[in-house]
Amino acid sequence: MAVYALTGFSLVSLLSFGYLSWDWMKPSLVADIATDPVEKSLPPAFARPPHIVFILTDDQGYHDVGYHGSDIQTPTLDRLAAEGVKLENYYIQPICTPSRSQLITGRYQIHTGLQHSIIRPRQPNCLPLDQVTLPQKLQEAGYSTHMVGKWHLGFYKKECLPTRRGFDTFLGSLTGNVDYYTYDNCDGPGVCGYDLHEGEDVAWDQSGKYSTFLYTQRVSKILASHSPKEPIFIYVAFQAVHTPLQSPKEYIYRYRSMGNVARRKYAAMVTCMDEAVKNITWALKKYGYYDNSVIVFSTDNGGQTFSGGSNWPLRGRKGTYWEGGVRGIGFVHSPLIKRKRRTSWALVHITDWYPTLVSLARGNLSNVPGLDGYNVWPAISEGKESPRTEILHNIDPLYNHAKYGSLEDGFGIWNTAVQASIRVGEWKLLTGDPGYSDWIPPQTLTNFPGSWWNLERLTDGLRKSVWLFNITADPYERYDLSDQRPDVVRTLLMRLVHYNRTAIPVRYPAENPRAHPDFNGGAWGPWASEEDGDEWEGGGEPLKSRNKKKKCKICKLRSFFRKLNTRLMSNRI
Fold it and tell me: Which of 112, 222, 428, 441 is found 20 to 30 A from 391 (Cα to Cα)?
């Protein structure tokens, strides 16, 4: 039996936060008040293909929205979700690239070769070019397609860029982590460059503008210049609320009483993003799109708890296969929904948006066989049963193998040292090393993470490599049933074996020195051509910037510190 210890929090304090008032086994407690038996306006079959706005936030924790009991103010998200359909059985992936690739392709990572880690800035890697993307299918259906925000699906060749993968326009960053104002990004010591792009060009002139504001203004501009009579798809992939923790001062001031500095800055970023969503919704109404629109809101992975995020009361955090890493915030807001103002417990995964949105757009899915996603619109709009009954969270053969896993522990059919996770019906299985496994309440204390006593720890299970949970009855993953139900373990292992037979080889190439921004005018961007292939050998001096208006500030600083270090070393010698 596992031994749990919750120290630093009394029962009274937990009740004061509202943690014990939310019973997942009684959906009625979290559902909104039912609407009238007869909706005032139930739309017939769509007269025209709907306008689609997909909003993806970065590293927003499961707890970090008002309607999940958060101390962070998100009035816009709360209202849009309350008036639409909240998805409370919605799953994403534990880190950035995997969620984005599955959204764009409708396929599990094992079917795109991206099942390990993320695409790093210097890797000759990107979303496979043979994949037909969601925006490409929407273009086929007559949509104008636009992307604003974070790409993080590779850029080593121009063929990998958003404008070559189905988007008519693009404003955003190509890498996974940039400064919110300067758009500088360092991929290790001395490997720094600028990363804000307009189409296929470096957007030097936009530096200094806070990204959440910049991206929201661009969405409004796109809507203002387009005709609402023609269908449009806008993918808004906010940088917020990923690190670095940066926010305009006026938002931080609202949380000045919050003792934990990281949580305070993080909360400010969430609220700023919430207001950005408000402005996007307002623009949809102002320019005549709203009545025929579908707004989808989704997080990309669990929150990073040591950077202000919270997934409470779920177990784990970003980068793990515990529920805190893979259960996401999600809702759909649209005048076209037939049964509004409710909470849905239908099983939905991020791969489902591809066939769902293409179907809404009256697109053709017959020429993209092998999708792992399902059309879940009837489940969302009409409350019908979800066609999805299982989710492969992932199989990662390259991740560090668990020390105590073996083929023997997997009934001779699966090596339990391999990191993998799957959900089938109400059961969830994890093998290998699922990642950091604590339950962490929102970090309001000033000295977190220095204090160990304000989180709940599992004190055994360190020598395990197999876990089984009834995720419906035990959504917090507190009661491992792998020993009591070996029959279920074996059944789910067989499903892993089945999926693994369909997996393609992992694509995770070595970093390429040619990717260094110093060789590309001080900015991150494509460096290879079709003739170059994936490997590059060579040297030479960095190329001079083609854009003389602005130079990479961080490169200047790096040069200064190099010279300073040389002088200091000379003096020491």
Answer: 441
Last residue of a domain, one of 458, 475, 501: 501
Kindly state whether residues 206 and 153 are assigned to the same domain: yes
Domain span at residue 180 reads 51-388
209-252: per-residue pLDDT in tens? 999 999 999 999 999 999 999 999 999 999 999 999 999 999 99
- Domain at 495, CATH number: 3.30.1120.10
The upper half-sphere exposure of residue 305, i.e. CA atoms within 13 Å in the direction of its Cβ, equals 29
Q: Is 86 among the domain residues?
A: yes
Residues 238, 114 share a domain: yes
* Residues forming the active site: 96, 152
Taking the CA atoms of residue 206, residue 208, residue 212 and residue 216 in that order, the dihedral angle to the nearest 10 degrees is -40
| Confidence grade of residue 447 (pLDDT, cut at 50, 70, 90) | low
Rounded CA separation 535/124 (Å): 8
Tell me if 563 is assigned to some domain: no
How many structural domains comprise the chain? Answer: 2
Q: What residues contact 224, with CB distance under 8 A and at least 6 apart? A: 283, 287
Indicate the pTM of the whole model: 0.86
> Using one digit for the tens of pLDDT, what is the confidence trace for 116-156?
999 999 999 999 999 999 999 999 999 999 999 999 999 99
Mean pLDDT (the chain, rounded): 86
